[in-house]
Amino acid sequence: MAGTTAITQDLRLSELAPRALQSEIRAMTMECDRIGGVNLAQGVCDTEVPAPVMQGAIEAMHAGHNIYTRLDGIARLRKAIAEKVRWFNGIEVNPDTEILVASGATGGFHAAAMALLNPGDEVILFEPFYGYHASTLKSMRMQPVLVPLARPVNASADWTLDLDAVKAALTPRTRALLINTPSNPAGKIFTRAEIEALAQVAEEHGLFVFTDEIYEHFVYGDVEHISPATLPGMRERTVVISGFSKTFSVTGWRLGTVLAHSKWLPAMNYFHDLTYVCAPAPLQHGAAAGLEQLGPEFYTQLAADHEGKRAKLVSALDDAGMKPFIPRGAYYILADASALPGENAALKARWLLAKTGVASVAGSAFFRAGHGEDLLRFCFAKKDRDLDDACTRLRSLKSE
Ligand SMILES: Cc1ncc(COP(=O)(O)O)c(C=O)c1O
Questions:
Q1: According to the model, what pLDDT value does residue 4 have?
Q2: Aminotransferase class I/classII large domain location, by residue (predicted)?
Q3: What's the pLDDT at 155?
Q4: Which of 130, 181, 211, 225 has most ligand 1 atoms within 8 Å of CB, for mutation?
Q5: Total of domains in the chain
Q6: Contact 108, 116 (CB under 8 A)
Q7: For residue 187, what pLDDT is reported?
Q8: Which of 139, 214, 341, 382 is the most buried (most CB within 10 A)?
Q9: How far apart are CA 378 and CA 184, in angstroms?
């Protein structure tokens, strides 16, 4: 083995590979499992899968739909998606040339970024941001540029867009804006005025707009979800990313959607094919059955159910002395944990888990270094039994 040392010295991780792999969310999940606590950390949404979706997938397996599909998805599903986005989002798409059924919104965003961006390109992201957006871009040597949203002035106010900050962040390398509406983790829903202002920036500076609308059905009260692609002049430059993970409670199925102009979509299909070949075949049939059989009332009920869950968790956090910022959409709550022991958010989250058995995510996961250290994120897409248990545990802090 004389040469082993010399060879080993030549072997190393890539420049992009992270040196420490354990994410804080996974670490909390493992610790939570170890102590038998309630996990409000991960956005896994373990609520019931709608019957037609489950049944559709099972039947498809028995019917032999277990082989590769067309690279952009089965015709049945693309047609059902086109119909759905027409009535729900107000977007007209050609199911044959403008839809990619992706391996999750995650796989869809990866393929879209590969198709439209070059290494060194800058993409504006709003802070607090969803970690995968930033990390996916970095993994392709693209540069996320963080623009902070203004913090709500009180619990029921919203995070707001600072347009001057967006303009100040633009450079000759800026190629795209990334809008997540409703957002993870803040539950922010961009208003029409905000989207119009961003559309104008995109037009003036020749930018693509990626919109991640995976929480489009989780909208509470009389707030309106607006798909930026529906604004005049935006269709061609906007890439709409969404999926079934959250709406049908199938995060493990890996089924997402990308809508893009037919000029761009073939390149996205190409990159998606290289990594995934296609989205899981029988599960595509399950999603198609869901879209075909579940009417508008399903989506209304989904929002109503989650609005109820939001109310439970808001009240429990309030009682526990952690002021929640009430989200307009999605299914997470950021709460002010400054009163909890611990120097930073990760230590506060660990303290809370040890004390109550409720796992949360350190707010710092969603901000640039040094920010979000007074915040914790809690997920309320949980079965009522588990959510009630978590609420009782959180309220036990009150008696401290
Ligand atoms: C904003 C956002 N986009 C995308 C995803 C992942 O979607 P998918 O499961 O379709 O990859 C999540 C999951 O937490 C999310 O919060």
A1: 56
A2: 38-394
A3: 77
A4: 130
A5: 2
A6: no
A7: 97
A8: 214
A9: 11
Instruction: Report how far residue 389's alpha carbon sits from residue 32's, in angstroms, rounded to the nearest whole number.
Output: 14
Cβ contacts of 11 within 8 Å, gap of 6 or more = none
Structural domain contains residue 347: yes
Residue of 216, 272, 209, 205 lying closest to 248 (CA atoms): 216
Instruction: Answer yes or no: is the C-beta of 130 below 6 A from any ligand 1 atom.
Output: yes
Atom number of ligand 1 nearest to Cα 106? 11
399 within domain boundaries: no
pLDDT score recorded for residue 27: 80
Residues written for the chain: 400
The answer on 271 and 163 residing in a single domain is yes
Given ligand 1 and candidates 245, 255, 258, 380, which is best to mutate, with the most ligand atoms within 8 Å of its CB?
A: 245
Which pair of tokens denotes residue 240?
């709409």
pLDDT at 105 (0 to 100)? 98
Give the integer Cα–Cα distance in Å for 302 and 296: 10
From residue 13, alpha-carbon distances to 10, 17, 19, 20, 398 in Å are 10, 6, 8, 12, 48
CATH of residue 217's domain is: 3.40.640.10
What's the pLDDT score for residue 335? Answer: 97
- 104 CB under 6 A from ligand 1? yes
Q: Would 121 be classed as within a structural domain? A: yes
Structural domain includes residue 13 = no
Does any ligand 1 atom lie closer than 6 A to the CB of residue 216? no
pLDDT at 29: 85
Question: Does 113 share its domain with 152?
Answer: yes
pLDDT, position 134: 96
The pLDDT value given to residue 17 = 85
Q: Is 111 in the pocket of ligand 1 (CB under 6 A)?
A: no
Domain residues for the domain of 140 are 51-293
pLDDT along the chain (400 residues), means of 10: 63 84 75 91 80 98 97 98 96 97 98 98 98 96 97 88 98 98 97 97 98 98 95 95 96 97 98 97 98 96 96 97 96 96 96 96 95 97 94 88
